[in-house]
Amino acid sequence: MPVKTQIPYDHGHYFISFTCHKWLPLFELVKGYDLVYTWFDVLKQHGHLVTGFVIMPNHIHVMIAFRKTAKCINKIVGDGKRFIAYAIIQRLKEKGAVNLLRELEKAVCYSDKKRGKRHEIWEDSFDWKECRNRSFTSQKLNYMHDNPCTGKWMLTENPVDYIHSSARYYITGEHGIYPVLNFLELEDIDLSIPICGESLPNTLPGKRLA
To answer: Is the pTM above the cut of 0.90?
Structure first.
């Protein structure tokens, strides 16, 4: 994903994407889809709202409505990526994926190594776009929901059948594996109202992190 500038606002509705290092299918390799759902739970606990998503074997698209926060949105997303990364590393260790761990370790740049980083799980930064209107938001929802059915993936013929996605809800009205808020409901929610309790926990619930 291209490196984007910092989100300059303290609230709003955004389409966010981030990708595993070298597009490696790390989510599939460690069955780590649940780690993303745990992050979604943490976001909700802090007042933010997940309105749509798809988790692919090697990347994530998600729409998040951030309530006004003293913590910059880039930091909130960065913290989520960091905690997911720690859990992925732990699962790779449990699987004995020595060669892959070595590859991810070699990918860490010198400056990051000096700061204590040991493995490179993600491509640099993340891509984001602000969802300012219904038309743009619908376009992005369709794009992400079609992701499993297009290109090299062909994980399913119908977006509804891909479980790690909000497609089922938007197409049928029935929630899939993870419930989301219909983005149309945001029109009745004032995201500019400040929230409290914004910091992420030191570990993902139920996981011992590396």
So the answer is: no
